[in-house]
Amino acid sequence: MNMEKNKQSNSILAGKFILLGITGGIAAYKAAELCRLFIKAGASVRVIMTPAAKEFISPLTLQTLSKHQVYDDLFAGTKRYTVEHVELTKAADLFVVAPATANTISKIAGGIADNLLMTTMLAARCPVLLAPAMNTQMYQHPALLENLRKLRAWGYHQVGPAIGELACGDTGAGKMAPVEEIFAAAGRILRQNSSWQGLKVLITAGPTREAIDPIRFITNHSSGKMGYALAEAALERGASVTLVSGPTNLEPPRGADLIRVNTAQQMYEAVLEHFDDAHIVIKTAAVADYRPAVRQKEKIKKGESLTLELVPNPDILATLGKRKKQQILIGFAAETNNLEQNALRKLKQKNLDFIVANNVTQEGAGFNTDTNQVQIFFAGGDSKCLELMSKKELAGCLLQEVDLLLKERNTTGS
Ligand code: PMT
Hints:
2 domains; 21 strands; elongated
């Protein structure tokens, strides 16, 4: 079975560019074997070592195996590496850190960039696989466990640690996963990361703003975090992503084709322009249902009272539901009451494949939070209630549901 797994990893690794980070632990010597496996599978490997790693294994060994200079010094020579490490991350398909010490794991979680491996890590936008290795007591320290949990929530991958006899004589969890396991995990990640290649994904995110006068507007609390997390998750799977975003303070996901809009009407036009070409459409945006009938040219002056006449905005998702051909169409529903009833109505009315309903009154769910808790209702009648989790994790779960729909369509040919 292991041989079968390794065969699959071999084929996906051919031609891939792997960054192999080695940190200062006794398991560092095993990184040489991992490097050899990657090379044998046809990958191109560049090795980055921390200063402590060089105490455990010679850079020359890794240089010989990878057939490339080993990167180990942030301030080497003409400081060219400070630029080169950013170039390396742009080319990398995967960054594997094996062994990953408690020190390095915690530095990543804290955003500390005090050596070449760390500066490269913080610049990296490719998936990262960590193979923790340390003493059992260190591994069980709440700070370390919390840091690993945080990194997983951010989308870092982890393999191991294994349980066994450690170099210090203790027995327990903390041993670096066997290199074959790390190699297989790398293959799995790369396979997942190319699974949406050729697919076009259209995502909307954030709020819309409907102007009352030159100073004021109607809007809502959407931060764009849910939609941006979905865009990142789709990019990680290799899809080409068009992100139509209302005003947010978020960093645009690298690689997405970002279209900024303000109003619901602008979002409607941008979405319709890209809809026909899209394979998957996810409407996370909190679109204002109404806009002022008239946008006053001058600032409205204070008076006794003010009555605003509002007119409905186009329902973008309902329009898409009518136009839908091959697309998988997914909506969100932000509800404060009757979640199921309202979500099911929108699912049907808007002709969706599934709808993701969040009760926005619940702590940690909905608008402007880093977490969300949702219930998914499918067109076929099924439903699923997911736990509270980070928006990043939720994005992964939702795309897995899309994967299942894609597979279903491939098998039925529809
Ligand atoms: O952005 P965050 O801070 O991360 O918050 C995430 C979120 C709470 C905004 C998100 O999880 C969410 O629930 N988005 C949907 C918000 C919403 O507008 O729900 P709705 O029930 O009003 O709309 C239902 C669906 O129709 C949505 O997919 C919406 O994009 C779409 N719609 C609504 C009105 C309209 N005029 N056009 C639309 O396309």
